[in-house]
Amino acid sequence: MGCKRVVILGSTGSIGINTLKVIDRFPGKFQIVGLTAYNNVQLLEKQINKYKPPFVAVRPERMEDLKQRINTRVTKILNVEKELEKVVTLKSVDIVVIAMRGSEALAPFLIALRAGKMVAPANKEALVMAGDIIMRESHRYKAPIIPIDSEQSAIFQCLEGNKHHELKKIHLTASGGALLDVPQERFDRLSIKQILRHPRWSMGQKITVDSATLMNKGFEVIEAKWLFDLDVQDIQVVIHPEAIIHSMVEFVDGSIIAQMGVTDMCLPIQYALTYPQRLGSGLKSLDFFQIKQLTFRKPDFDKFPCLSLAIYAARRGGTLPCVLNAADEEAVGAFLQKRISFTEIYKIVEGIVMKHTIGKNPDLEEILDADRWAREKTREVMDQ
Fold first, then answer.
1. What is the CATH number of the domain that holds 349?
2. Whether 247 and 141 share a structural domain
3. φ, ψ of residue 9 in degrees (nearest 5)
4. Residue 201 pLDDT more than 70?
5. How many domains does the chain have?
6. Most buried one in 69, 200, 320, 383, CB count within 10 A?
7. Residues 220-231: what's their mean pLDDT?
8. In the chain, helix, strand, coil percent, each to 5?
9. In whole angstroms, how far apart are CA 76 and each of 43, 58, 72, 87, 96?
10. Rounded to whole angstroms, what are the CA distances from 144 to 109, 118, 277, 319?
């Protein structure tokens, strides 16, 4: 494997930090060409001093401060809101890791594909919003997408070397989140801190709340539909609290291939970065003699209605998944600000989804219009 040149969009978040951990394991095999951050400029400064990337991008109000603190002869500072395209489309870039959260990842995702880059997304929202467009651009520009999300990476690995027409079903696993064994009537009595206490993964606040509602797993259903060219009915969500099996693929002959491993995001990140090779990760191997049990449950759609709402949006398609995502982003943000209760997240998002007139086969402009409409309507509802 030659030296791969990497841009990390969102280098100060958990995925970005873990991506750099993986890169640190392989001196000479990777070069950091660009880093971006939005809020944590202090950590970004440390990353700049360590990796000396030619380009970084930050918010405009932090650019001048950062210029005073780093060697600008080595690293050029760009405006993350206006100049991200310069970093993503550099001829020297091989891989673009999308570690930034939310709908803001859609534009750089498409820009990277159109520049023919390999894209390694940990971001679900872009594919939820515009999966059809993203996959068309991936094929058109021959730009591969190697997912970092642990479940999608597992599916990708299980499908390697197998024929798509022999695929019967995807078994998409979910740990169940922080509220799996909490009675539904207690949900609104829990603190935000309790809801953010995920039993298996360390993630950002928004995705942890989505894991608690199981909306995150619904987003993954939509994501898998596009990434692997599947019908929604061929994707089955399986609650697997141990989070050892990261997903499974069932073939027409009844064979099921599962991808298993320790619960560590460095594993799927490294697979994407080193693909198609596998290198030693330094992670502990699974100790099968220490695994007491592997359990599986059906999702409780009554207790976690966000999952059924997301599957409904996946089936209806068009602009509806985009509306679902936008309304959820606004509602979860309001919950984290203590403006609404936990159970109001579903009620508000469902109301917006049901009000929306679906646009079929939308282009990018129609998707962005639907995103704006959903955010405005969600804010109106919450203000009332």
1. 1.10.1740.10
2. no
3. -90, 110
4. no
5. 3
6. 320
7. 97
8. 50, 15, 40
9. 17, 11, 6, 10, 18
10. 12, 5, 15, 25
